[in-house]
Structures are given as structure tokens and as C-alpha cells.
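Board notes (copied after class):
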Amino acid sequence: MKITLFGATGKTGIYLIQEGLKRGFEITVFARSNSQFEHPDVQIVRGDFTNQNLLREAIRDSDAVLSALGPANIPHPNGIPITKATDAIISAMKLEGLDRLVAISTGTAVDPDDGIDMKIWLPAQLIKFTMPKVYKDIVGMAKTIRASGLNWTMVRVALLKSIPASNRLNVGLYGHVKHNLKISREDVAKFMFDQILTSEFVNKAPGISTQ
């Protein structure tokens, strides 16, 4: 099985790469043109999200796309770059006939069926009013994915930690399943790869957290 990763050069990316390789998958990483990223066991396609041909090259013949794109710099750039990058990925997927997308998101991007969970709602409001560009981009990315027509899953997380996997997760919509704020990046990687072969959360946006 072949998987294409976006956002794999960030902190969560190395866990996605390790998990994919552990499962015996062929991994292609799309890295920005100016990235210094190197890895001996994955194929790397370098380019910018404005280059549709290189996006298609990275996606071609893949069975699924996993995206760990998210806010990485403070201050956040103008112009909703994550939303635009996600839209470009979706366009390339459609051109290549690929329809399975699993992407990281956050509780800031509210699901219509969410209940009330103050642990999630309060940080989201804080981001909305103190980092409006981040908020706009996170929400914009989620709207773009929902409107894509793909078989998508958004894996919503709160505080990502570089700690060993617990393998015991709370999974479900906020306000309906009891969540805490922490989640291991390794747990996230495992959960995202698990979604490739199941339809349980297709066109859904479960929150996940460590029990």
C-alpha cells in the first residue's frame, strides 16, 4: 500500500513516517522546495502547493493521503495558507482519482454535532480572539475538507505531546465523549493510519485524547 504524507516534516510527521514504515507501507512525503528534510526510507517530492504537477506526482498511485498540516509559526502568515494548501491537495487528489483523505484538525473547527465541552470550547475561544488568523485558517481548512466530496476523516486533537503511545484513547465527538486535552503524537499517527482501512469515521471528525 502506498501513502502520501503532507506536513510530514513537522513534529508529528516523524511519527507518521515511522508508523507507516512499521506497517510496511510505501511512503511518499511532499516537502516544500526550501525544506532540508531528508529520510532514507521514503520517497520525497519537493515543491510548493502552487505547483499542481508536483502535487499530482506526489499523490499518483497512492491509496490514501494523510495530512498533518497545521499552524506552525507565530505570527501566523496572512492569507489562510493551510486552507489554500489543503484545497490544492484536494484538487490534485481529484485529478488523480484518489478519494481517501485523513487529516489532523482541532476542536477549534467545531463539528455540527458537537455538544458542549468547556475544556475544548474555552481554548477555541481564546484562539479565536487572540490569534484570529490561526482561527480563520483552521476553520477554513475544515470547511474545505467537508465540502471536498472526498471520503475524508478529520482527526481532531488538542495538545500534542511527544511521549510514548498510551494505546488507550477516548474517541468521539466533543461533548458526547469524555475527553482530556492531551494526546501522544504516536497515538495520533496510529489512529490516522488505522482509518485507511476502515469506514467507521468516513465523513466524520472525531476528537481523540488519551484516557
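Comment from the instructor: The mean pLDDT is 95. Residues 78 and 122 are 24 Å apart (CA to CA).
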